[in-house]
Design a protein that fits this description.
about 45% helix; binds D-glutamic acid; alpha/beta; Rossmann fold; four-stranded parallel β-sheet
Length: about 260
């Protein structure tokens, strides 16, 4: 692999843009190819084997066509289902996954009350159980699935009234009861404004995007593959629709 090769970033749709914006901020001199599989989103309600197959197929294109020096799985669901298989298939590449930021929550709020909002797949996979066991004595964790939220964000309604109605229903029982809410799906930071309004300032909102970007930089530096060129971002999507590309660009430039 060469320094000049791209960093591939993958998600089931537009959610991974929330990680991409941290990557670009941290390493502006790199070239990125972002691929969102919006034609098959959401992944989070599918059988695990299907998520694995979709992720492997997308990775195959990114690894061989481009080629990529690193693959960032900017999707908690795809990471839970496929990171092990990907590392076996591409042992010579840097593969960085993302998991719900429970460690950050436990570090900031010792013995605190923490909610983890994530997809069905993420919450039911063994990887999440292992994570829970690591922190079970450090904080009290509530698992919060959010069916329907990814679809709203995919259609650009992350901070619209329908999202507010859905989130009020999901988060209503937790108002005043959480020190932190972990946004355990990369789509959810795009609804952070609404989530913050519902839960109020006493609940911190945490996500793994920045940590994933730092881990990517660490791995590239370790391999001597950090590039400080003129940089650039190419956005690809499996949905043949210009709207999804313009939504992706808009989200990339949105400040949280
Ligand atoms: N963005 C993905 C994640 O981080 C999941 C979205 C989906 O269900 O497709 O989990």
């Amino acid at each position: 692999m060469n320094k000049e090769d791209v960093i591939a970033v993958f998600d089931s749709g537009v959610g991974g843009i929330s990680v991409l914006r941290h990557l670009v901020r941290l390493m502006p001199g790199e070239r990125y190819v972002y691929f969102g599989d919006s034609a098959n989103a959401p992944y989070g309600t599918r059988p695990t084997e299907q998520v694995r197959q979709l992720t492997m197929a997308a990775a195959e294109k990114l690894m061989t066509g481009t080629p990529a020096k690193a693959l960032v799985l900017a999707c908690n669901t795809a990471t839970a289902a496929a990171v092990t298989a990907l590392r076996e298939r591409y042992p010579d590449r840097i593969i960085v996954g993302i998991e719900p930021a429970l460690k950050v929550a436990a570090d900031h709020f010792p013995h605190g009350r923490v909610g983890v909002m994530a997809t069905e797949v993420t919450l039911r996979e063994e990887k999440f159980d292992t994570l829970l066991h690591r922190f079970e004595n450090a904080c009290t964790v509530a698992k919060i699935p959010a069916p329907g939220l990814v679809e709203l964000i995919e259609s650009g309604k992350g901070n619209g009234p329908e999202t507010r109605t859905l989130l009020e229903k999901i988060l209503g029982p937790y108002v005043g009861k959480l020190d932190a809410l972990v946004l355990g799906c990369t789509h959810y930071p795009f609804a952070a404004g609404t989530i913050g309004k519902i839960l109020g300032p006493e609940t911190a909102l945490l996500d793994g995007g920045e940590g994933t970007a730092r881990e990517t930089r660490r791995r590239l530096a370790q391999a001597g593959l950090l590039e400080e060129g003129s940089g650039g971002v190419e956005i690809l999507n499996s949905l043949n629709d210009p709207k999804v590309l313009s939504l992706s660009r808009k989200l990339l430039n949105e400040e949280r």
